């Protein structure tokens, strides 16, 4: 079984699937260095899954944090269950931060849906190739930096001369 690595930018080694913003084309510019990178099917799936996790996570967390921060009665009612007495403001801030955990758990089903949508997008990109695969099967299979290509051709010339 082939081990499938991450889709890394050939220049700066940034994982190109971990970006906010979905991939809808066969090549993207690296969000860190701007290098154009051919995406694989796996990168499309991972990217859609990542975005479908992160955006609902941010939205749910913001909603929960705002609810905790602006609903003092709720916080007072919840702190009654604690064995120690806590200042309401401290409890509100702590509660808002701790909402990270349930927000992340609530966002997981969205990630599964996103991976499925990513499947459809990758399939659409592959079918746009009209017989020839436009998504490479392995990361880095067809990718090299222009400087590497120039170096290779230059060394070839030197060997001939
Ligand atoms: Zn890069």
Put the structure in a nutshell.
The protein has helices at 41-70, 72-79, 88-98, 100-128, 146-160, and strands spanning 27-29, 36-38.
> What is the element string, with H for helices and E for strands?
EEHHHHH
- List the total number of helices: 5
List of distinct ligands in this structure: zinc ion
Number of strands: 2
Parts with pLDDT < 50 across at least 5 consecutive residues: none
N- to C-terminal distance = 43 Å
SSE class: mainly alpha
**What is the alpha-carbon Rg in Å?**
23 Å
Share in β-strands: under 5%
Overall pLDDT confidence: 84
Q: Helix amount, in percent?
A: 55-70%
The biggest sheet, with number of strands, parallel, antiparallel or mixed sense and barrel status, is: 2 strands, antiparallel
Tell me, briefly, the overall form.
elongated
In spatial order, strands of the major sheet run 1-2
Tally of discrete structural domains: 1
